[in-house]
Amino acid sequence: MKILDPRFGLFVGDSDSCALERLKYGEKLPGKGFSPEDLSLILSPSGWRGVFASSEDDDSGEPAERMLWAAMAMAGAAAEYFSAFSGKPTILVGCDARPTGPAICEIFLRVFLALGIPCEYLFITPAPEIMAAARNRRECGGFCYISASHNPIGHNGVKLGRQDGGVLPGIEAAPIIQRVKDILASPEELDRLRESAGRVDSHQLEALFQQVSDAQNRASRIYSAFSGSVVFDTYPDKKSALQESLKKMPLGVVGELNGSARGVSIDREFMEDLGLRVRLYNSRPGEILHAILPEGESLEPCSMLLQESWREDPAFLLGYVPDNDGDRGNIVYIDPDDGRGHILQAQEVFALTCLSELACARMFGKGGNTPQAVVVNGPSSLRINEIAESFGAKLFRAEVGEANVVSLARRLRNEGFTVRILGEGSNGGTITHPSAVRDPLNTLMALVKLLRLQDADGKTPGQLWFELRGETPPVSGSLALSHILESLPKYQTTPTGEARAKYRVPAGSHNLLKSRYESVFTERWGARPDILNSLGISAYRFVNYEGTERREGPGNRSGEGRGGFSVEFLNDKGQAKAFVWMRGSGTEPVFRLMADVPGDREDNEVTLLEWHRGILDAAIESGA
Predict the structure, then answer these.
(1) Contact, 355 vs 450, CB < 8 A?
(2) Is the pTM of this model over 0.85?
(3) Which of 6, 111, 192, 200 has the fewest CB atoms in 10 Å of its CB?
(4) SS3 at position 228
(5) What does the alpha-carbon distance between residue 12 and residue 3 come to, in Å, rounded to a whole number?
(6) 484, 465 in Cβ contact below 8 A?
(7) pLDDT, tens only, 423-458
(8) Distance, CA of 624 to CA of 198 (rounded, Å)
(9) How far is it, in rounded angstroms, from Cα 454 to Cα 268?
(10) What interhelical angle do 236-248 and 267-274 show, nearest 10?
(11) pLDDT one-digit tens code per residue, 239-273
């Protein structure tokens, strides 16, 4: 029976038409099975992904046949993992708004049902919502989310997590990844999975499809309540204070959702309940109108919509654009001085949310002697160090990857730290405790609180920031994001999306290349760029990031040395004032590069990055 969702008329599934019927075991399945390389699969703790359609731009909704085998192996490995749980808790299954999602979800549901794993189907739902639902329902044991996040429309993939609401840490993900590889390599295991999944009673599947609306509504209620506890940090008086402030000083938000999963979520209701004025555009899931990655040109439509809204109503000052699974949302804003929409850079987004949450903790926290900490990834700008120091918070860095910063934050909490704000500054990904995933709603609300939340004396977190810097703050109501941006510590940081942030490397050992880089760097230290001398730089240190670990010193790496690598430039007090960074891509033969240097001069970042690239050139040549 073909089932459509009642809200948008979208295809949920057909219990009488099995996606597995396209898998005819025999000639098309190699005798040795598949390897991840055969299918161009990326299997990492942060998620599994590949091009599941016929091409990365294919929006037909028909997965390529060989990728159905990949989905089968992933489902089998996930089912084995979840079946080991005692008590057989319910596993939530959902997807973003990509066209291949329903077919992949069907395979997962069939495999789970075949192995007796209780499951519930949310169909299209944003990643933060399914994760919040898994975290806050006692009968749930975890989630399986089909998504490729910000990648092009033909991509897809899988994220697994348990009931803590975050993706699995690397130590738990590693054996599941190995099982995916083992199943792919075994035609016999693939065929057994196909046969057992194909025998699932269609009535069981139909029941899951029929109950999608109820499952979505239940998840939305949980997500709304959980989001309130995240945004207001268990202090209900902060919510009422913000509602009162917004009555006196209105604020409007434009969302350009680009056909993402956030179109089925709580955004409008949550924000309007607080008193925000809200306009959402392109909110029908699946109608993807521009590139999914919310950077650069993809933010221009929202910028223009925000400008138009501001001209009609000057309260509209903020806008956001999510990626397809709705766990990342980059920001545009109005500068009232020029009346134009502007795009926040990823590092600026994280800096502002970090500032807001630390200021709120100072103004509204319970006090006490618990030390504050902020956790970021290796390539986050040193600007965050200065912001954290302004509030007396200590900063810690982990390897790139959401799972790494979340795991490090958990460890620090166990050691006695309060970690309210964490994330990946290099891509603007903000995670606000107790959430364990990026969420544009939390990011937006941090900016709203920064501008509008008032204490008993009428002071906002934004005004507190100016006072901490010894500056006179603008009057409440006239404070705009542009004013706070201008007050941030000045740094020039390589944008991750620029071509010069990529460096093609020959195949070979990352560890060996980094060792050669260290040797060349040491030889060239005496001829360092003048910009470093002008900053009072007198020394340097090599730093390697592996998972949650920061390892200082040359050669201090383990295994293949594929983690992040940084050179920090130190003043005579041993403080890092600038850095260069690199990390090998897991998807292509390139290193991602970055330079971060204080000041207003963009050419200083360019100079430092070129010096960094030159050392890499020499390191590669030395091994030729």
Answers:
(1) yes
(2) yes
(3) 6
(4) helix
(5) 6
(6) yes
(7) 998 888 899 999 999 999 999 999 999 999 999 899
(8) 53
(9) 23
(10) 80
(11) 999 999 999 999 999 999 999 999 999 999 999 99
